[in-house]
Amino acid sequence: MKVWILIFFVLIANQANSQLKNQRCFVCHGVKNFGIVEQGKFKSLYVSREDFEASVHSKFACVSCHVDVRVIPHLTKPRKIHCLQCHFEGNVVGAPVTAKPEKYKESVHAKAVAKGKNAPDCKDCHTVHYVRKPEDPNSSVYKTRVPELCGGCHQTIKEEYYNSIHWAGIKRGELSSAVCSDCHREHDILPPEDPRSSLNPKNVIGTCDKCHSDVKLMKRVGVPVTNPEAYKESFHGIALKFGVVKAANCASCHGYHDVLPSRDPRSPIHPANLAKTCGKCHPRANENVAKGKFHVLPGEKESGIVYYVYTFFKWFTLIVLIGLFTHIVLDLVGHIRRKRKKASE
Amino acid sequence: MDPKKEAERLIKEVEAEEGVTLDAEFREKLKNEIAEKIRSEIERKRKEIKRKVEEEEEYFVRFSLNVRLQHLTLAVGVILLIITGLPIKFHESKIAELFFDLIGGIQVSRILHRIGAGLLIFVSIWHTLYIAFTKEGRNEFKELLPRKKDFLDFWQNIKYMLGKTNERPKYGRYSYIEKFDYWAVYWGMVIMVFSGLILWFHNFFLGIFPKFVFDIAKEAHSDEAMLATLAIVIWHWYNAHFNPHVFPFNPTIFTGKISKERMLREHPLEYEKIMKEKLSREGKSDER
């Protein structure tokens, strides 16, 4: 019996398919308060036609994705659909295929979803019907909207982030400033314990470095571009490079979500707060730690006294070694000359 | 060589030459006498050779056991410090990575570095006590003090090396080269030990010194380490190993012994002094 019904529907649907234009869907779904009551709650089934038609999927018919809708009005609830229905390797509808879904599968979000927890998958960030390119200012994943998007779940972190210099930069229109995804990445968001994570202590420097060693960008925003380099030369940087994970990385001192410049009294690197910040690891740290420059590169004149120590040793070593080397060469040449003289005699 | 056979041969030779035959009894007596003479002559020669060999092998004790152990401790400490310190200075190199992998991580290397530092500090205290409280140490220290002669020797050596003169400078117990090495260690020690201690006990010193002191300590430690390493590898090793006079290796600092021949060539004035003292001592004992 069931088989007969199915065959019946397929026949009908085949006939109706060509006429099944989006127009007919929007008759109901284009009405703002269209919805159903499900488990005692009102569930909106409204789809903004205007927004859908501005999306990357505008050229597709609703039924291209909702393939189980064969008659309109459909009497049953359409099955849940998934992006990978089209976005898979070898699909025939021309849906772009990237490594992003695979990356996502590794992420904390996918793992949580697999455990049955409430965590986002594609649609939670990219929306269902209004997917736009990330460059599009109206996209749900447009740079300036990312904090709000992630903050939908991570609310306290969002509040912290809104205090940071990075958000201040975005608000000022400096779109190169960092939002969530710049540090946490987009799809392969991994826990800091994972060695592949951009937030793993060993990778933090590289994560910050992406922007903070960009000469043009740092010049534009007025941040010293040599800081990551100086860090790599410091004991902290060297220890971390060779696996001492407890050594301070950028975030240990600067904080992360609420990064602020040293001139801001709320910043952990404000001179008044340095004793406390250094004191996290170095118990005897006091106001002395604020007396001196940070991220010192000995070869730079801005490094003050360290530059002069460096310069002194540079010349001193050069002069001493030239002297010693000359003495050795004279000794050797003299020795050879005498030996030859003796041999010829 | 059998003296009797040799004597027999000599007699036969004379007999044949003169065409006579000696009386048997006289002949036997003569043979024994000649054999005895040959035997004593051989004995005398043998003794002479032995004495000559001994004379050639004559050596002087240049360094006491105390000094040799000081040098050994210093050498082990410094080598340990160099091989564990350089990979930190040149942390970007592949060799640094390889070294830390080999040794079991940077934390192991840090411990080894501090063992080296301990040896270095220990030997500096040892040496200070040695020159302050032992007669030998005070004498050695006095010998090592720079004086006008060192500058004249230096000048003379330059002329000698350039071939302007055939007269080598006559060094005393320590040449200006050895004195330079000795005093260079003071400079190095002061910088390395003080900056090193600040870095080692940074948590303690953080409560005392402003931050820039640590930056200076780090820079000085790193730069002076480079200078010391180069000076040791190029200069000190040349003078002690690769110099054609001593190549491949001058063992005196480890054995304490120096041959008379080298003594005469390298420290003629000290040799003279020792001989004079010996003579005057022998003279005094003769008087007695």
Automatic annotation (TrEMBL), chain A:
Signal peptide range: 1-18
InterPro entries, per database record: Multihaem_cyt_sf, Paired_CXXCH_1
Membrane-spanning intervals of the chain: 312-333
Protein name in the entry: Tetraheme cytochrome c subunit of nitrate or TMAO reductase
Upper lineage: Bacteria, Pseudomonadati, Candidatus Kryptoniota, Candidatus Kryptonium
Record-annotated Doubled CXXCH motif domain positions: 121-157
Keywords: Membrane, Signal, Transmembrane, Transmembrane helix
Domain of life: Bacteria
Provenance organism: Candidatus Kryptonium thompsonii
Keyword Transmembrane: yes
Automatic annotation (TrEMBL), chain B:
Keyword Transmembrane helix: yes
This protein's UniProt keywords: Cell membrane, Coiled coil, Membrane, Transmembrane, Transmembrane helix
InterPro entries reported for this sequence: Cyt_b561_bac/Ni-Hgenase, Di-haem_cyt_TM, Hydrogenase_cytochrome
One BP term from GO: respiratory electron transport chain
Gene3D superfamilies listed in its UniProt record: Transmembrane di-heme cytochromes, Chain C
Domain Cytochrome b561 bacterial/Ni-hydrogenase residues, every copy: 62-243
Any Pfam family the entry gives: Ni_hydr_CYTB
Superkingdom classification of source: Bacteria
Coiled-coil residue windows: 32-59
Membrane topology annotation: Multi-pass membrane protein
Localization in the cell: Cell membrane
Tagged with keyword Membrane: yes
Gene Ontology MF terms in the entry: electron transfer activity; heme binding
Sequence intervals crossing the membrane: 69-90, 111-133, 184-209
GO cellular component: a single term: plasma membrane
Protein name: Cytochrome b subunit of formate dehydrogenase
Species of origin: Candidatus Kryptonium thompsonii
